[in-house]
Amino acid sequence: AVAAKMAALGGGGTRWRRAWLPALQLLRRGSKAVTRHWKAMHFQRQKLMAVTEYLPPRPALPPRCLPRPSTRGHQEDGQAQVLQRQVEETLRGSRMVAVCQYNSMPDEDVAMFRHYLRKHDIHVKFVLNEIVRPVLAQSKFRNLLPLFVCRNILLVSPEPRAREMLRVLKGVPQVNLLGACIDDTILSRRGVENFAQLPSLEVSQGQTVAALSLPSSQTSSLLQRGPAHLTALLDEHIRRLRDTGGATEPPPG
Question: Would the keyword Ribosomal protein turn up in this protein's UniProt record (predicted)?
Answer without folding.
Answer: yes
